[in-house]
Each structure stands twice: as C-alpha cells, then as structure tokens.
Amino acid sequence: MEDFPVSTVEMVCLGTSMALSGLFFYIYRKKRKTVDKLNEAPRLPLDGKLADILNSTPGKCLQYVVIEGAVQPVGEPLRSQFQEGTVGVVQKLVLKEHKLVWNGLARTWTDSERILHERVSSVPFDLVGADRAAVRVLCPLEASGLDAEIVHEKFHQASYGFTDIIGQYLSGEKPKGQLETEEMVKVGAALTGVGELILDADRTLKLRPPTDGSTFFLSPAGYEAVRLEQEGQATLWRALASLCALAGAGVLLWAARRHYRRLRAEREQDRLRREFKRMAAGEEDDDDDDDGAEPPANACIICMSEPRSCVLLDCGHVCCCYSCFQALPHPTCPVCRQPIRRVVPLYQS
Ligand SMILES: [Zn+2]
Ligand SMILES: [Zn+2]
C-alpha cells in the first residue's frame, strides 16, 4: 500500500461516490426521457373527430398522447364506505397505525407509522369529452400520478389504562391510534391521461399503458402539473448525480495533494542526504593525516565519532551528525527537546 497514492478509506469513498453518481445519473436520464416524451406528446381534443383521426393512422394506434376528459363509469360505480352518496371509479382504503417509539440514541419519543391494511379497487371507466366521445381507460392502477381525492379521514385515538402505561415504558412503544382514510377518483371528476391510444375493432377508443415502456400517467391535476413534477424530479436527480461526482473528484484531489506533498518531502530528504554525504567525503580527505584513534573535538553527542554536521532549526543547536539525526526516534532536538522543523547542513571551513 506504500506506493499506492490512494488509501483504502479514500478508495471506499471514491467508489461509493462514483457508484452513487452513476446510479443517480441513470435515474436522471430515465426521468429526462419521460419529460422529453411528455413534451413531444400531442394533446388531442376528446371529441367526435378523435376516432376518425385514429382510423386514418397506420396501425390505428398513437404511441403517446395526452387525453383530457371527465370520469364516467362503464357499469356500476364504486360506493364510498363512509360518505353517503359519493361514487367513484377508483377507491383506496388505508388503515395506518401511528405510534411513538422510544429512540435510545436521541433519547426522545419519535413518531412512527405502519400500514395495517390497504385495499385498492377499481371499476372500468371512460373519459368523456365533447360530442359524447369516450375513451376507455385500461389498467388505471398501473398509472403513476393518480392521486385520488380524500373523501374520508378519521383518527381513532388509542385509550389505555395504568398497566398499559407501564408496559409501554418497558417495551418502548406508545400507540397513538389508527388513521382510517378513504380516497376516491369520483365520477364526473376531470382526469388527464397520458398513454397509448388505440382504436379497437369494435370502434371503441382505448387508452392503455404504452407498450414501449414509457410511463403511463393518470392525473387529476392536469397535463402541466404532471410535466412540471417530472421536470422537477429530473432536476433533483441531476443535482444529486453532480454532487456525488464532485465529492468523488474532491477525494481524488485530496489524495493527489497528499501524494504530491510526500513526494516533495522525499525529494527534500534525498537532497539533504546527498549534501551531507558530499560534506562527509570532503572531511575524510582532510582527516587523512590523523591517526583516527582520537575522537574529533566537535564529535557528535550521540555516536561520539562522527563530526557534528547538522544545524537543527528552530532551536539552532549543532549537536549531532546527519546519520544520528536520521536515527532520532522523534523529531525533537536531543539537547533542548524542541521540535525540529528543518535541518540544514553545517559547513566548517
Ligand atoms: Zn552521530
Ligand atoms: Zn536544541
């Protein structure tokens, strides 16, 4: 790992940010494609001429179109379980449990909810426009964006006695109650559908999920709302992808900076070593006449044999030879214990 410029932790960070960036970019591309298809989709008026338009289209099929109309059930509509006289074509009944759960980490009670029961049902329905022209909607439950209207909402408060309270403190869970909701796409409501429009053999128009994998939309909010929401999501995913890519680039830059600093420090050390060697070689030439038994007067205080050859900075002590300086366990001056920030060779002439 010594030569490798990126550490394991950095490698993990880099890998994670790159993988997330790739994933977010992939989602963004998909969303972008949906937005582009929505922008290109023709908005066809729902009237008597629509069947003729399809009749003259090859294959009697339009891949991706926007149709707006009023909801009309084909047979018997669904009746609201809670609101008298309310009828619809899509019904969603949800029972949710709300409770407080003790969070040991934050040392507080936090809200938590869980779906106890969910039932979605639908009956066949048409979108009706001018001239009593109608388009049958197939597979409405596969559509995205189908936010039905809430027709009933009731919270049933949990009631408990003294022993329950003790039990709650022991288990760390306090039930708050149950929320019962009923959502419905009502008969007569305006609905916008985006999907594949076909003309069947019996001359009925049908809107179905696109066979090319594009997103099927049914929305009570209208075409513009669907388009804006998809565009907003695309922008969000792109921002997330860029953020992760930036984080990855940051990790790389950090590793490169550290690698560069280490290279520079190594080069500096190398230069010093060479310089001290050159100096030592010069002094040996001078010492040729000596018998070599007596230590020099300015001998290194550590090895007592080599001449002192380093100036330790910032304290400025001249007390050791270069090889002893290199062998110091900590970069502190052996005389005064001040940290050594730099060492320069001492030239004696
Ligand atoms: Zn020495
Ligand atoms: Zn010192």
From TrEMBL:
InterPro entries: MDM2_MDM4_MUL1 (IPR051652), MUL1-like (IPR022170), Znf_RING (IPR001841), Znf_RING/FYVE/PHD (IPR013083)
EC identifiers of the protein: 2.3.2.27
Pfam families named among the record's database cross-references: GIDE, zf-C3HC4_3
Gene3D superfamilies the UniProt entry points to: Zinc/RING finger domain, C3HC4 (zinc finger)
Catalytic activity: S-ubiquitinyl-[E2 ubiquitin-conjugating enzyme]-L-cysteine + [acceptor protein]-L-lysine = [E2 ubiquitin-conjugating enzyme]-L-cysteine + N(6)-ubiquitinyl-[acceptor protein]-L-lysine
Sample GO molecular function, one term: ubiquitin protein ligase activity
Gene Ontology BP terms: protein ubiquitination
Membrane topology qualifier: Multi-pass membrane protein
Principal location class: mitochondrion
Top enzyme category: transferase
Localization of this protein: Mitochondrion outer membrane
Record key words, sorted: Membrane, Metal-binding, Mitochondrion, Mitochondrion outer membrane, Transferase, Transmembrane, Transmembrane helix, Ubl conjugation pathway, Zinc, Zinc-finger
PANTHER family the UniProt entry points to: MITOCHONDRIAL UBIQUITIN LIGASE ACTIVATOR OF NFKB 1, RING-TYPE E3 UBIQUITIN TRANSFERASE
Protein name: RING-type E3 ubiquitin transferase
Organism name: Synaphobranchus kaupii (Kaup's arrowtooth eel)
